[in-house]
Specification:
The structure holds 2 protein chains of 2 kinds. Chain A has helices at 12-33, 47-67, 70-75, 77-94, 114-130, 140-157, 163-167, 173-178, 183-202, 204-221, 229-253, 256-265, 277-287, 300-303, 315-347, 352-376, 394-412, and strands spanning 96-98, 101-107, 110-112. By secondary structure, chain A is mainly alpha-helical. Chain A has 2 domains: 3-11 and 28-181 and 272-417, no CATH class; 187-254. Chain B is built from 22 helices and 20 strands. In chain B, α10 runs antiparallel to α20, α13 crosses α15 (363-375) and α14 (354-360) crosses α19 (494-506). By secondary structure, chain B is α+β, with helices and mostly antiparallel strands. Chain A binds chain B through residues 174, 177-178, 180, 183, 186, 281, 283-291, 298, 300-301, 303-306, 320-321, 324-325, 328-329, 332-333, 336, 339-340, 343, 347, 359, 362-363, 366, 369-370, 373-374, 377-379, and chain B through 1-3, 5-7, 9-11, 13-14, 16-18, 20-22, 24-26, 28-32, 34-36, 38-40, 200-203, 208, 211-212.
Chain lengths: 419, 620
Amino acid sequence: MAASKGLVKLDWLTIFFYFALVGIGWVNIYSASLDDSATTFWDFNQIYTKQLIWILLSVVLIIFILAIEAKFYERFSSVIYLVSLLSLLGLFIFGKTISGATSWYSFGGISLQPSEFAKAATALALSKYLTDIQTDMSEFKDQLKAFLLIALPALIIIPQPDPGSALIYAAFVFPLYREGLHFVYLLLGFFAAALFISTLAFGIFWVILAVVLIAGFLYFRKRKKRPNLFKYIVIVIACIGFSFSVSYIFENVFEQRHRDRFNIVLGKETDSKGIGYNTNQSEIAIGSGRWTGKGWTEGTQTKGKFVPEQHTDYIFSTVGEEWGFLGSMLVVLLFIALIVRVLFLAERQKNPFSRVYGYSVAAILFFHFFVNVGMVTGLFPTVGIPLPFFSYGGSGLWGFTILLFIFIRLDGANSYYGI
Amino acid sequence: MRKILLLVVVLVTGVVFAGRLFYLQVYDTSFQELSQNNAVKILYDYPQRGYIFDRKGDLLVSNQPSYDVMVIPREVKPLDTTEFCKLLKITEGRFDTILNKARIYSPRLPSVVIPQLTKAEYAFLSEKMYKYEGFYIQKRSLRDYQVKHSANVLGYIAEVNKRIIKENPYYQMGELIGKQGVEQQYEEILRGVKGVKYIQKDRFNRDIGPFNEGIFDTLPQKGKDLQLTIDSELQKYGEKLMVNKRGGIVAIEPKTGEILSLVTAPNYDPGLLVGRERSENFTRLWYDTIAKPLFDRGLSGEYPPGSPFKTLTALIGMQEKVIDTKERIACHGGYHYGRGKKLACHHHPSPLSMVGGIANSCNAYFCTVYRRTIEKYPSPQKGMDAWENHLESFGLGHYLGYDLPSGRPGKIPDSKTYDRMYPENNWYATATISNAIGQGEVLMTPIQMANFTATIANRGWYYTPHVIKGIGEEDTIPKEYTKKHKTTIEPQYFEPVVEGMHEVYTSGTASYIRIPDIEICGKTGTAENYIRVDGKRMQLTDHSIFVAFAPKDDPKIAIAVFVENGYWGSRWAGRIAGLMIEKYIKGEITRKDMEDYVLNGSLQDEYAKPYSGEPFKINR
């Protein structure tokens, strides 16, 4: 009956996961950023103090988000999207450059990164477009429009340059698929990624050989059914063309640092001092944690500040070192639980807008988690994106808070509860 | 499908991450080591090694400071090699080799460049060291020997090698460990425990304070001093007597099993194996494969014991009740057995009873006793094993268990020995008759001879011989050296043997080397021996052997002397034993004639014979 009185019924489990992750995250930021310069706890030059302020402000932000009527987000999604795009474009004029990337607005002492907020805006816009009565995802024209909607912010973000943040927009392929995008696109994407990686790993010659052999094998096996030879030839030529262009892009468009990152993960180069230093140190920190870790603020690698950017992108290495396998697994399980919970909630939405949005939230959180932990544990190349709720940074925390709590607000308004 | 794809991807990712984390954190332990290596620096604080004193409290071994030039290859910056090599007094080629070796061992652990500089060299070098990053001088303490004897007892210390480091993680490159003698045996007591300081470093390799607030740091524990049972004076005198001879002297205090003196000849000045000259001197000693100065003949030389063994034959005979003290046995110039076989004897009165048999060392007497002992049993095998069992209770045929790291078990044959030699099993007591007089298959080390002599002096028991008298402030010694070992021979059978050994001095084979005012009991021995030169077996001059204890009724010292190729037992070994006993009991020498004979005598010509390549005569 509460919902009918205009009060919001909230999914407290999701909120619990959120605060658990933010809390554990702060504890680890404290350890990673601890040094002797602090005189009191409330020293506003200290990273952990700043982050605590951001967390407290997030609570205020959450109250705001929950206070606004759910319909607002659906109705104004296009406006929010446009404002977000403008804020990204504005960076080219007013942007502040921090460590090489012009991704920030600076107000007094506070810096904000609009790309962190653009994810939520894009998710809203995509949800709105996909649930429009006139949109038909089996139509190529509408597919193209949806792709454009997603690609636009990514294309503005890439030249900042911040390819990591742009990569996240690939996460939207999951809600698109959920809402009717043909499976072929996914398969194509997967196939392209496989070709991409094997071209880099084994060289173009072996890839072409493998493609020709596999195609030949398939053709001759189905020979009696008289398959269309032309189709096979086109596919093989397309694959070879793709492989060549990957090779070309890798050698001529990528910068050396990108090439290095790929080569190290693919095992073609072992360089623990130069470009591979981050990953190597991160693995040492995590690996030295053993079963139960060295204890909070006792991590030798963390104390010695061996892992670069440990309080931001590499925060998970602190968890690994100080809390060990058990602690890291707790964090991994919390993330999985949160994402699965959001997926579960999304599936039971009666309002399609809420469902698509929920799906987008789950996909974005998952992609961040996947790429970040994969990078920190040395499974993927170095891609500079934060671990949601964990990594230090006000914009990131706020961006993910907004993203998640809009969905909690939408879920709260679901008529499912409203009896 | 559309609903569950993302769910499946999320769950698979969870499993993959769990596997990856498990691999990194639990399965692969190398990361822990890497972490220790780059984040924590270890500094060692070396304690003083314990001093070594003799039984009277005289200092034998103390310490002196020494300085090693060390290098951490990773931290070496480009340097003026020519100048540095001049300072270190080495060639550039040598310097490069050393540096390369250090790098191969470990780029981040210290290695030694130049070991053991003197104080003067150190003073000169230390003011220039600041120029050479990655190099530093490590102070260590080396042994400082106060005496020029006892090298075989004391042992020496040397740098640990890679094998030791691998086996015992306590040791790091460049550290010292006891080798041989007391230094090896009591290594852990003497060395103490080094202190460890863990220093937390940051990524620029700067110290940022103690690791974990220093809870893992330890203070060094000083090594404990050792007091030995060795009598420094006696030891020094023994080594002096053995100059120009080869062999060993072992003197034991029968009441306690304390080793008073343990001489091997030839020997060396322990000071040779200290400092920079150590390796050169060691190599020289090591490669002397003829005189073998590093070989402790007192502990590891296995010789046929010869006639002193007859005392044991007598004891076993009485215990087995095959002979009593009254029965007299005739000797017709030897012991006749089998078809015309004869084990010859020398001229002496005949027939003889027990006491006279020992005093005159009659071969026929003991061959008779031995044969009766073996033949008392239904088969020679059983007789042999009973005989062997008695001898085992004297600590023979096995490692004796004393507290020095070198030694040999000797050899006491049993039935299996002869079953192997005669696979048809058709052997009889007569085939092994040489055992009766300490030849044949019987082998003993001089310390085993000294120990059985001490057992006879005690009339039937012994403590395992040892050199440890006190550790640190305490007099307690390991309990295996305070446990009394009883022999299988009943005490009453010892008196006639002691009496016989006494008569050796009064009327027997050693009557011309009596020491006035001391009632010594002894037994001479002369053992045949052979060597192989260029594949040819040749007989050398007999070994001169003597065992003795004194005084007869309250034994204070039991001694075994073994002089290789010294011919008659009394000629060399007997004289030396007498002099040692007099020195120990009286503190001075009255038989100057005997002393002069020994000090001026040399057997070097004798030792040179088999290597001269010319035919030679023995036993002259």
